[in-house]
Each structure stands twice: as structure tokens, then as C-alpha cells.
Design brief:
The protein is α/β, with parallel strands linked by helices and 553 residues long. It has 13 helices and 27 strands. The protein binds one RNA strand of 76 nucleotides through helix 5, strand 6, helix 7, helix 11 and strand 11.
Length: 553
RNA sequence: UGGGCCGUCGCCAAGCGGUUAAGGCACCGGGUUUUGAUCCCGGCAUUCGGAGGUUCGAAUCCUCCCGGCCCAGCCA
């Protein structure tokens, strides 16, 4: 330990919990929860919250529940709930208990009656528009509803009839009686319950009234004895209401809400509304499109749970409005795949190379290491023949300055093989290079050439043994760092965000690749066998990320 | 004179009255290298949004100012 170990940065939430634990608050227990609404797929921003909540519980030997915030049946579905469970599990976390806000609908109703009995809640029969008008503005106080002083008996009666389904959507709502002049708009008699005659994914048609988030969340937390309720900054203004509800009810506990900044990632959009739009308007190919910032999309792209967790570790937890650069995310997956991914050779845009001083039936098999720094990764056989393919990028008839690949009359090292020299260029009628005729130096296998330096090294694949493959290249979906601010989503989409190459040639060992297996295609980048489309008969690889490139390709 | 919150290196982020202001990403050198990758070594804030003040001593406490974010759903 001569070197300073990378110290994991502390954060303000940890500091708060450290103090609470030291003070013996909550009996020294730490209980958190991850509370998604099942109305869409989870994205990288949720991963931040998942890592925080589950990670915090683990750190303090506590527990973390997965709780579906299913209070708005019109927008929620079982498909989403299932996907969310899969995503959390795939990320590597286990919830202590699986709960639903709807598990507490009966208790929530009883607590609401209690608020009415205390004179702290009332049924308002104003329309939504009237309520909006009476709410006031950011700078002007609101005015009290004419229904605000109904008797407790009348409120109880009306509320029970709302529950019984006697009224239609919008006829009445239950409101907390707090302060219409509060500077905090959330405290201007917020709605607690609304009538919604729709089928709920779990309670079916049992209820015709559904509780609002602010009322449901704090009570659910309290029922589950959550100690630290971690949520994003936009709920800071809601905390007084969170505390108001719990201060006025005899709940099992009174959790502490702590807010942190949500994730903002450059060239990405993390608004559920806009992600749904991308899917519904077929701007992308579904929720798991490899360009999507959804967990399932990133999984298909080739990101790993480890890399996503590392990312959440690297970005930290604060209350700052921070924008994270893409490079941070890319660095996480590169680090892991550099350590773990076996190396292979793949040619994306093939040019045939004929090594003319080799007999037509020449055949050699090289045994190559799967990893240059890790012997335990084993080896594989790579055939070498008279005709091979190299990448079009690795040949230049008129090379740019400092180019160190193949040029007319020049030499280059074939990776793990011989040094070859380009003797002749063959073009088609359109002037496109279709073949290179080269000679090789037989005395350069495993050794440097005599009397000269050959700096460039390029990858290659045997023309006779290479397998054809489809390789999909991905770039950021958007052409601007903050697409949410773009004129329109359509304009912000980068048409080059997905490039499908269907004529690639890869080394034969790749025939054994299985879905979701990662590789480094040497000199190109990290790739993953597509989890849905790849098979041994139809090789399909997605580019996770390029190799770091200090040159400028 | 609406309420709430935030400002430490290009991007993140530790720091909590006494440290040479951590660390990561990025960047810039130099070395190794049959991946222009990896790896290694070195560099990278006399300064903490600004100005005052308190103090022997301030990024850390106080005051004012400047800049940015959130809130007017019967969404979460």
C-alpha cells in the first residue's frame, strides 16, 4: 500500500447518516427504498438512485425495499413493472421486500378519514380550473375554496361516497387544509385524493378514488419504517408537506426525506415523457435500442452492471446541478472491458490483400493470446492465408501527415504476423480500390525486420477462413449536449447515430461467440454479441465504445 | 420583500476554523509496447462565484452582491 488507494469520495447523505447512526437515531438502523412508478422503463438516471438507495442500505447493513409507486392507474402497466424488476436485478441488487403503494390503499384511506376528523382535510367540489384560479400565483397568495369549511360529518360522508363510486371523475377531491397564502405552493391545500374510475394494475376496480403522490409517499415510507427517504431535488419543496402529513398522523415512524441532484448526461435525454416519444414515434427501435439511455438499452449496447455501478460511484452524490460528460461513462466500460474482454480481429470495411509471394494454398495457423496482459485468458487459433482482408481505413493512397499504416510502396506489420509491403493497387472502373497486391518479409514473424523500422501495425482476417458478420456502430443519439433544449427532438437526432455494416469479415474464432459476450476488436473498440439478433449462423456485434484514440481518425 | 435550493481546476467531486486545497475523468509531456490501445512516470486551482467583515488563522463563520436551478397537475 505504498500508493495512495483511490479513496471513495464521501457525500453529504453519508455524512448525515453517519451522524444519525452515531447518535443512535432509529435504533442505528438504516432502511431505504427505491420507489419507481411503473409507467416507463428505467434509465441511467434511475440507476443513480438505485445505486444510492441499495448501496446505502448495504453500506450500513440495512435494508432497501423496491416499492412501486402505483397511484396513477391510468399511466401504469404490468409490462413496466416486470421490466423494472428485471433491470434492478440485472444491475446486481436485491430488494429486501417488494411492496406497492397500492398495498396501503386501505390504510391510506383510514388515515385520510383521520385527517378529516381532525378538521385537517376537506372535500372540495370545485372544478380543476376553479382550483387553479384560486391557487394564486408564484407571487400572489391563493384564496380559500368556498367548500373549505364543510362540516366534518359532511366531509366524511362525501369522502365515503367518493370511495363508493357515487361520483364521476373530477366531481370532488379531498384536500388538506393547510394555508392558501403559503409561499410554498405545495402547501396551498394540496389535493390528497381524486376520483379515477379506471382499472388499477393490482387492485382492479376495487377503488374509484386514488391517493396523490405527496400523501401516499410519506405514509408508505412511514409504514415501511424507512429511515432515510432519498429523492431528487425537485421534491425539496414537497418536504414541508411530507412532514405535515406525518406530523398530523399517528404513523409507525417519521422518515427523513433527503434530496439529491438528478443525473444530467451530455448528449442524452432522461425525461420519461421524451423517451416514450422516441419509442412511440419509432425514432428509435424500441426501449432497448442500443442508443437509448434506458438500462435495457444500455445492456443491449453492451454496457455491464459493473460499469454502470462504477459510473454511479464516479459521478458522486451532491445537490449541484451537474452535467456529466459522456467520457465518464465511456471510461467506466473501457476500464472493465480492457481488463476482461478477449481480443479478436475484425475487418469492418474490407479490402482484399493478396500476398503474391505466397503459394495459393499457403496456410499457417497462429496461436494467439486472448489478452496481451492476462495469460489466464488463454489462446485461440488464427489462420493465415495468401489472401486476407484489411480495413479500408488502414490503407491510404495519399496518406495524411504522420499516417503509419499501409501506403503504396510502404511496409506495415500485420498484427501477430508478417510485415508486408504494398506493391500494387487495383481499382475498379469507378476508381475505388478493390485489391492490394503485396509481398511479405518471411523473416519478420515474431521478430523485427532487419535494418529498418516498421512502425504501423494493422489488423487482418484470412479471406478463406474469415466469417462474415454484421457490425453495428453506435454514436450518441443526439447531436447536441442538451437535446431537451433543442427546437425539436427530430432536429436533434443524429442520423449517423446508428450505422449498420453488413459486409464485415471477422476471424473464425468469433463463430463461437455467444449472445452478450464481449470482445475487443483490436485497434477498433469494444463490441458485444447482440443479445437478440446474434447466433452462430448470423454473427451480429454492437459497438459498445471505441478504443481511446489519441490519433484523430 | 413569493417560496425552496445550488455555486471548489475544462467536466465531476472531497473538504465542515489550522491540510502543500484529496481523488476521478479530460488534457499536456516522457517511457514501454507487433493494438496510434493498455501500462508506467511526470505536469495540471498561491486558490475555493464576487466584495466586505469576524478571527492569530477562513473554501470552511457572518453580511451584502452576482450567477444558475426548481415550484402555480385532480402527474410522480
Amino acid at each position: 500500500m505504498s500508493k495512495s488507494e483511490p479513496v471513495k469520495a464521501s457525500n453529504f447523505i453519508r455524512n448525515i447518516i453517519d451522524e444519525d447512526v452515531a447518535a443512535g437515531k432509529n435504533g442505528g438502523q438504516v432502511v431505504t427504498r427505491f420507489p419507481p412508478e411503473p409507467n416507463g422503463y428505467l434509465h441511467i438516471g434511475h440507476a443513480k438512485s438505485i445505486c444510492l438507495n441499495f448501496g446505502t442500505a448495504t453500506r450500513y447493513n440495512g435494508r432497501c425495499n423496491l416499492r412501486f409507486d402505483d397511484t396513477n392507474p391510468a399511466k401504469e402497466s404490468e409490462e413496466y413493472a416486470l421490466a423494472i424488476k428485471d433491470d434492478v436485478t440485472w444491475l446486481g441488487f436485491e430488494w429486501n421486500e417488494l411492496r406497492h403503494a397500492s398495498d396501503y390503499f386501505d390504510e391510506l384511506y383510514e388515515y385520510a378519514c383521520e385527517l378529516i376528523r381532525q378538521g385537517k382535510a376537506y372535500v372540495d367540489s370545485s372544478s380543476a380550473e376553479e382550483m387553479r384560479e384560486m391557487r394564486g400565483t408564484l407571487t400572489e397568495p391563493g384564496i380559500e375554496s368556498p367548500y373549505r369549511n364543510r362540516s366534518i360529518e359532511q366531509n366524511l360522508d362525501l369522502f365515503s361516497r367518493m370511495k363508493a363510486g357515487e361520483f364521476n371523475d373530477g366531481d370532488h377531491v379531498l384536500r388538506a387544509k393547510i394555508d392558501m397564502a403559503s409561499g410554498n405552493i405545495n402547501m396551498r391545500d394540496p389535493t390528497l385524493y381524486r376520483i379515477r374510475k379506471v382499472n388499477h394494475i393490482r387492485t382492479g376496480d376495487k377503488w374509484s378514488i386514488y391517493p396523490m403522490y405527496d400523501y401516499t409517499h410519506c405514509v408508505s415510507d412511514a409504514i415501511e419504517n424507512i429511515t432515510h427517504s432519498l429523492c431528487t431535488l425537485e421534491f425539496e419543496d414537497h418536504r414541508p408537506l411530507y412532514d405535515w402529513v406525518l406530523d398530523n398522523l399517528k404513523t409507525p415512524s417519521h422518515p427523513q426525506q433527503i434530496e439529491f441532484a438528478r443525473l444530467s448526461l451530455e448528449y442524452t435525454m432522461l425525461s420519461k415523457r421524451l423517451l416514450i416519444k422516441l419509442v412511440e414515434e419509432n425514432i428509435v427501435n424500441g426501449w432497448d435500442d442500443p442508443r437509448m439511455p434506458t438500462i435495457i438499452g444500455m445492456r443491449r449496447r453492451g454496457y455491464t452492471p459493473e460499469a454502470l455501478r462504477e459510473f454511479c460511484e464516479r459521478i458522486g452524490i451532491t445537490k449541484n446541478d451537474a452535467w456529466i460528460e459522456m467520457m465518464v461513462l465511456e471510461g467506466c466500460i473501457r476500464d472493465q472491458l480492457n481488463r476482461e474482454a478477449p481480443r479478436r480481429m475484425a475487418v469492418l470495411d474490407p479490402i482484399k490483400v493478396v500476398i503474391t509471394d505466397l503459394p495459393a494454398d499457403h496456410e499457417q495457423r497462429f496461436t494467439l493470446a486472448n489478452h496481451p496482459q492476462d495469460d489466464t485468458a488463454g489462446t485461440r487459433e488464427v489462420p493465415f492465408t495468401r489472401e486476407i482482408y484489411i480495413d479500408r481505413d488502414d490503407f491510404a493512397e495519399v496518406p495524411p501527415p504522420k499516417y503509419q499504416r499501409l501506403i503504396p510502396g510502404g511496409e506495415v506489420r500485420l498484427r501477430s504476423s508478417y510485415v508486408i509491403k504494398c506493391e500494387e493497387i487495383i481499382k475498379d472502373d469507378a476508381g475505388k480500390v478493390v485489391e492490394l497486391r503485396c509481398t511479405h518479409d518471411p523473416d519478420t514473424l515474431g521478430k523485427k525486420p532487419e535494418g529498418r523500422k516498421v512502425k504501423g501495425v494493422i489488423h487482418w482476417v484470412s479471406a478463406t477462413y474469415g466469417e462474415s458478420a454484421e457490425i453495428r456502430l453506435y454514436n450518441p443519439l443526439f447531436n447536441t449536449p442538451d437535446p431537451a433544449k433543442a427546437e425539436s427532438i427530430e432536429d436533434a437526432i443524429d442520423p449517423e447515430s446508428e450505422i449498420i455494416l453488413s459486409n464485415c469479415i471477422v476471424e473464425p474464432a468469433l463463430k463461437d461467440a455467444v449472445a452478450e459476450q464481449h470482445f475487443q476488436f483490436e485497434r477498433i473498440g469494444y463490441f458485444v454479441a447482440d443479445r437478440h439478433d446474434h447466433s452462430s449462423d448470423n454473427l451480429v456485434f454492437n459497438r459498445v465504445v471505441t478504443l481511446r484514440d489519441t490519433w484523430a481518425k
